[in-house]
Amino acid sequence: MDKNPRHIAIIMDGNGRWAQKRGLPRLEGHFAGVGAVRRIVEACRDLGIPYLTLYTFSTENWRRPKEEVEGLMMLLREQLRFQTPELKEKGVRVIVIGKREELPLELQEEIKRSEEETAQNKDLHLILAINYGGRAEIVQACKRIIEKVKRGEIEDVDESSFSSYLYTKDIPDPDLLIRTAGEQRVSNFLLWQIAYTEFYVTETLWPDFTKEDLIKAIEDYKRRKRKFGGLADEEGSNIR
Questions:
Q1: In CA terms, which of 21, 69, 147, 169 is 20 to 30 Å from 227?
Q2: Which residue among the candidates 2, 4, 15, 61 is catalytic per the annotation?
Q3: Catalytic residue chosen out of the listed positions 4, 13, 131, 213
Q4: Does residue 13 carry a catalytic annotation?
Q5: How confident is the model over 51-76, as pLDDT tens digits?
Q6: Cα 191 to Cα 230: distance, rounded to the nearest angstrom
């Protein structure tokens, strides 16, 4: 394999630990994590990676302390407001997946504005998973299918048609999933989409993650032979 991944997904873990190591409030770690987001978005654009998905806020994150959750909502809103003009200028399209209707109204408005202002961009599709859960996404897709069956609009479902009911219906599945801070679990992230995704785990905390770290992950990915459930010949092509 010698090509860059088309779609990279990242579980941005370690903001809290980064702050705690420095004797700072956890929210300071999230502020520091913004710098890593900007670095990696720019790096993916420079490297010609067309899709980048960032696990920004999960459905389980509501269980965190109220102060931290409110701070995260504010941070997301302000960053969308301030960064959208630059993203638009640099050809980055913003797409948000997740239960946005449960988010604060002001954040919903910023999401809508950012998506609309960048809708024509094609250099990099930046997918932000906000209030996202993989199980919830699958359940929601099933409910939509059931309603269509009841109305007589569809009779059968296969893997391809099921995918069209997911948040990511127009987005290719990730080729590479990166998780920072050393944890080795998927945390309810893109459960359907990562069936054949290559995983890369690094001990680096998210605020410290750099373009060089990203390139290291990509180079590791390039050395792998993707089989997609089949066999691979000596040249690495797939034999189904």
A1: 169
A2: 61
A3: 13
A4: yes
A5: 999 999 999 999 999 999 999 999 99
A6: 20
